[in-house]
Amino acid sequence: MTYDLTVDGTHNFVANDIIVHNSHSAAYALVSYQTAYLKANYARQFMAALLTSVKDNTDKVSAYIEECRRLGIEVLPPDVNESRESFTVAGSKVRFGLAAVKNVGMGAVESIIRSREQDGPFSDYSDFCRRLDTKVVNRRVLESLIKCGAFDSLGYRRAQLMAAVDSGLGLAQQSQRERENGQLSLLDFMDGSRDSVSISLPEVGEYPVDEMLALEKETLGLYISGHPLSQYRAVLNMLSTVTAVEVPELPDNSEVVLGGLITGLKKTSTRRGETMAILTVEDLTGSIEVVVYPRPYAQSRLALRIDEVVVVKGKSRENGEETKIIGDAISTLESQLEGELHLKIKNAGSPLLDQVQIIMSSFKGNSPVFLHFEEEKKVIKAGEEFYVDLSGVLIGRLEELLGKARVKVKRNNNMLQLDPGRGKTVEAAGQETMVISSEAKNPGNKKVKKNDFFSILEL
């Protein structure tokens, strides 16, 4: 560590553990004022320049895009007709640059922009393929542009274009040969007829939203048109004490609570042969590594799955230039939310009840369970000793056993409804609701053994 010290008095400014001259402090203050002024008065231009300055750092780009959203500035995906090399202002929005797309090199970017400047914007997918230079715009470039949404403004579905990549390349290669041979096709002598020639696109539906976002992540390194965590934004803000991008700024060994998506999971063993895990957890601002040692791993292993939304409690740990989180406790986000589990069962004598009990006993928690018996037209609420943890794993297992339509989760948290289809209670008209516990007595005054879950279901 190098210290820049002054001699007189105690008027030094300390930043990041470095003591600097008062003159440096004044310069920092001036730069801070200038950047604050630009952000306040020219927010779109400022954010476009800021994003361009960190375009090679995916985590910082993610953090600044989230800041754009906070400021009400929409960040648009790359576009073959609008994007330049870097981030640019597009009206009231910011447009992604073509150079940010993986597999699209500068040669391809310059070729696309040059063609656009010389012959005008691309009218459609066929026009783009006819005009592209196949020496620099190849299959990988074309596929990456489609996956990130660079042709969306032309009115196509991404799945359609992916199914027509071969046709597009075939047209591009034919046009390239004609240009190189100095040949003119009949279309060149027919005014406007070139626009009538187009590639026939298959009638296929668009990708599901999650798959579309995954393709964006593959080609841009981040999500742009949405984010798997967007629906959880409010509750994550409530539960988290820090974001992924803020963790490196904290003092070492700071206590943190971070909510995010598990995007990477590597299991390993200690010298004693105990299992531990190294996670990559991504939130709306970026990603960070989380180390889970054997004890917390054993306690939370059911929550450690790729694409699971979790809440991590732990401590920050600085390791050279890299900061990690040492996870002390990891739970699913769903388990942090208040809710009710409703199960629809044919009758109280169903043999499935034994299996329901076995599954539920592995996921004890704080959410009440309601059993809806169709034939008896009654709803029974189990006692607190049978409350469960509303994790995705529990719901999945119950859905496999009973069927998806017979397992419903009713959320009590007004900020979040995880699944619009899971806000309705399965109840038949005229049902009677009973609240029971393991120590209740049945209508015939037959004593029920403690913890005998199923004897109390004898209606």
Provide a quick synopsis of the model.
Helices cover 32% and strands 20% of the residues.
Topology:
Blueprint: E1 13-15, E2 18-20, H1 22-41, H2 43-53, H3 58-70, E3 75-76, E4 88-90, E5 93-95, H4 106-119, H5 125-131, H6 139-148, H7 158-163, H8 165-180, H9 209-220, H10 233-239, E6 255-269, E7 275-282, E8 287-292, H11 294-300, E9 309-319, E10 322-332, H12 333-336, E11 339-345, H13 352-361, E12 364-367, E13 369-373, E14 378-381, H14 392-402, E15 407-411, E16 432-435
Parallel strand pairs: 3-5, 8-10, 11-13, 14-16
Antiparallel strand pairs: 1-2, 4-5, 6-7, 6-9, 7-8, 9-10, 11-15, 13-14
Helix pairs in contact: 1-2, 2-3, 5-8, 6-9, 13-14
Question: Mind explaining what this structure looks like?
Answer:
This protein is α/β, with parallel strands linked by helices and 459 residues long. 32% of the residues lie in helices and 20% in strands. The chain contains 14 helices and 16 strands. It has helices at 22-41, 43-53, 58-70, 106-119, 125-131, 139-148, 158-163, 165-180, 209-220, 233-239, 294-300, 333-336, 352-361, 392-402, and strands at residues 13-15, 18-20, 75-76, 88-90, 93-95, 255-269, 275-282, 287-292, 309-319, 322-332, 339-345, 364-367, 369-373, 378-381, 407-411, 432-435. The strands form 4 sheets. Strands 6-7-8-10-9 form a 5-stranded mixed β-barrel. It has a 5-stranded mixed β-sheet with strand order 15-11-13-14-16. A 3-stranded mixed β-sheet has the order 3-5-4. A hairpin with a 4-residue loop joins strand 7 (275-282) and strand 8. Helix 6 (139-148) packs across helix 9 and helix 13 packs antiparallel against helix 14. The chain is globular, with a radius of gyration of 29 Å. The N and C termini lie far apart (75 Å).
